[in-house]
Amino acid sequence: MKRLLDLVLSLPAVVILLPVFVVIFVAVKLTSRGPAIFKQERAGKDGRAFIFYKFRTMKVGIDPFGPSPKSGDDPRLTRVGKFLREYSLDELPQVFNVLKGDMGIIGPRPLYISQMAEWDDRQKKRLLVKPGLTGLAQISGRAELTREEKLQLDVEYVETACLWLDMKIIFATIAQVFRRKNIYEKRYSQSEYTRGQGK
User: At residue 50, what are phi and psi to the nearest 5 degrees?
Assistant: First the structure.
């Protein structure tokens, strides 16, 4: 049922959003140096590695394994990249990850392979399901949650997953995208970022 739901949602999405893909691809290429698509190895179901796709939102030369921007004023973001992140448009290429079967619509967000070594046995339960475009942690606070809180919610999803919960997460995610809620950490300011980088 889960795989069927993934295909029913992702196949039409690719067709409908194709013009959006083209516009974003061109905008990223024309406004900053580097590839339009960001590719990175992430941990999938059972810890298997797969190539994860996103529209590039940061300038070239940035550490690909560095921390994600915590503020819209992060100097690593491109102008177009900031807009894409605010509306979660940078995540759209992951629809192709869903079609390939590497990801599902709903599930824990895919993390770095190196992070698996930091998880305890319970936290590793998140690897029992495919990673997803969105999940319980994303509708429960997103950037406002600590790493430990996100992992806890990922495990809770694995332990309670059902079709009803998946539908609830889908509708809550749509609402969050339109409200642009919890994209960045509210308590994080530009001055704090600058101090943290020693600039």
Answer: -145, 160
The per-residue pLDDT for range 79-97, each reduced to its tens digit, is 999 999 988 899 999 999 9
DSSP 42-106: EE-GGG-EEEEEEE--B-TTS-TTSPPP-STT-TTB-HHHHHHHHTTGGGTTHHHHHHHTS-EEE
Average pLDDT over residues 116-135: 95
| Cβ atoms of residues 183 and 85 within 8 Å | yes
Domain ranges of the chain: 2-181
Phi, psi (deg, nearest 5) at residue 107: 160, 175
How far CA 126 is from CA of 44, 108, 112, 136, in Å, comes to 10, 7, 13, 12
> Between the ranges 131-135, 139-143, 160-164, where is the mean pLDDT highest?
131-135
